[in-house]
UniProtKB/TrEMBL annotation:
Residues 34-127 form the Fluoroacetyl-CoA-specific thioesterase-like domain. Keywords: Hydrolase. The active site is at T42, E50, H77. It holds the Pfam family FlK. CoA binds at G70. Its EC number is 3.1.2.29. The keyword Hydrolase applies. This is Fluoroacetyl-CoA thioesterase.
Length: 140
């Protein structure tokens, strides 16, 4: 990681919600999900917030050798967003503890706040991470 990886890094990421990012598309194998309203799925919202955090800090890592993985998320999904609306994620790195990174996250659609909370990521060495996965696959 670079010396520039410090609390205070902020990033805003924008995305148009497509029908493929709605609740029925989250698990199309599930009749329960398919029967639900066509709104931005919480599962995809989490991924969108993670994406914004990754974009915020990648310039401060030795990418792609160093990457981050999500380890914890605590958000409230405050409001539904239909497809066709743009959403914006605003993230800020608020704490760096060794390789553990903590972010304040929030998301808005073009009408209102849709999510807010905290997200934690951990810096990994991609080669070592892949080696551990290989060992795990071999033991499964």
């Amino acid at each position: 990681m670079k010396e520039t990886l410090k609390p205070g890094i902020r990033y805003e990421h924008r995305f148009m919600v497509h029908p493929s990012k709605t609740v029925p598309a989250l698990y199309p194998e599930s009749e329960e999900f398919v029967a639900m309203p066509e709104v931005f799925a919480t599962g995809f919202l989490v991924g969108f917030l993670e994406w914004a955090c990754i974009k915020a800090i990648n310039p401060h890592l030795d990418w792609p050798q160093e990457q981050t993985v999500g380890t914890h998320i605590n958000i409230s999904h405050e409001a539904a967003t239909p497809p066709g609306l743009k959403v914006a994620a605003i993230v800020e790195l608020i704490e760096v503890e060794g390789k553990k990174l903590t972010f304040s996250v929030e998301a808005h659609d073009s009408v209102e706040l849709i999510a807010k909370g905290i997200h934690e990521r951990f810096i990994i060495n991609r080669e070592k991470f892949d080696a551990k996965l290989g060992t795990k696959r071999g033991n499964a």
